[in-house]
Amino acid sequence: MSRSAVPRVAVTALMTPALVTALLTMAMLTLALLTTSCAGPSRSDEDFRRKAANTAEAMVAVVETARVTAGAAGSGRLLPAYVAVALRDAEDDANGIVATFDSVQPPSAAADALRAGLDDTLQQATSRIADLRIAARRGRLDRLPSLARPLADVSLRLRRYAEVDR
Fold first, then answer.
1. Contact, 99 vs 126, CB < 8 A?
2. Residue partners of 13: CB distance under 8 A and separation at least 6
3. pLDDT tens string 54-93
4. N or C: which end of the chain has fewer CB within 10 A?
5. Which H, E and C letters describe the chain, residue by residue?
6. What's the whole-number mean pLDDT along residues 94-122?
7. Residues contacting residue 45 through CB under 8 Å, at least 6 positions apart
8. Burial call 85-100: b when 16+ CB within 10 Å, e when fewer
9. Are 159 and 56 spatial neighbours (Cβ–Cβ below 8 Å)?
């Protein structure tokens, strides 16, 4: 079959509730695996950088899940109740990531600077996800894509933090 004979389907048309559920499940598993390595004291800058990178990577999964959910909801492909629960779960996960990272003692002034920068980005992610949840609970699914737009930049910054130790 030639390339031109293959029907082109928009990616957003493929976002079924089952696919969003699968993405959420994958994000939750990733979160569980990554956050277990984030907790505890840091004895060196290298260890702290590793924990910061793992934290950022876990938050990327949550942010991207929220973005996919918002896009699919804004297009009318998801039920409002499902969206509200998915975004509540994403917000809970984001808050857990922040709490876990904030419990780690930075070992030096350099680690303090890394912590301050990453924590600011984590808080921005958590706040934006909370905005999505609030809008969803108010039945404003049409607003979700525009509310989620700033999460693209937040995700990019988190990815940079995730590469700090790679």
1. no
2. none
3. 999 999 999 999 999 999 999 999 999 999 999 999 999 9
4. N
5. CCHHHCCCCCHHHHCCHHHHHHHHHHHHHHHHHHHCCCCCCCCCHHHHHHHHHHHHHHHHHHHHHHHHHHHHHHCCCCCHHHHHHHHHHHHHHHHHHHHHHHCCCCCCHHHHHHHHHHHHHHHHHHHHHHHHHHHHHCCCHHHHHHHHCCHHHHHHHHHHHHCCCC
6. 96
7. 107, 108, 110, 111
8. bbbbbbbebbebbbeb
9. yes
Burial class (CB in 10 A: 0-12, 13-18, 19+), 155: buried
Residue carrying structure tokens 């492909």: 77
Tokens (6 digits) for 92: 């809970």
